[in-house]
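REVIEWER CHECKLIST
Item 1: Sequence provided? yes
Item 2: Single chain? yes
Item 3: Sequence as submitted:
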Amino acid sequence: MMRVHRTAFALTVAIGLAGAAMFAASADAALPVGAKAPDFRTVGALGGKPFRLHLADQLKHGPVVLYFYPKAFTKGCTLEAKAFADAMPEFRKAGARVVGMSADDLETLKKFSVEHCRSVFPVATASAATIKDYDVAMPMVNNVTAMTNRTSYVISKSGRIVMVHSDLDWKDHVAKTLAAVRALKAQ
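Item 4: Structure as written out by the authors:
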């Protein structure tokens, strides 16, 4: 009987470690600092209104914080959006724009842009190509629709990635990206 429990325990630990390794690998998967940020065009929403977003156009105004999040209206993504909204005066002072991206559809993003982004920064749809280009695909579990992992990029006006933070926990994304855009402004 004791041997069966040990085997079951060892199997449970092995499965848990394999799952943790899968999520750790996804959290580490990101474009490196210094890489050219892939350009893209997509649709998004700001204050509930749809618009077309082109990264190259955003970069003409200064650095861009491009943060990918898994799914609108989930707890972590809602808290992260609110934290970015609260920090928008500081991002603006540093001359940066913030754009949130997920695989959510436009109707969902229209609501999310008002309710949780407080109409102060846009959210946009990440296409399969953009998800691949930015290496932010969340591993699929139980054939769930494709989602992005939680990765934040700070992209300089020249289009180079100057900071990457990839962590499923939302709590440090705002502070780390804000520090990076402040450092850019100080240069």
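Item 5: Key structural point noted by reviewer: The chain has a mean pLDDT of 84.
Item 6: Recommendation: ____
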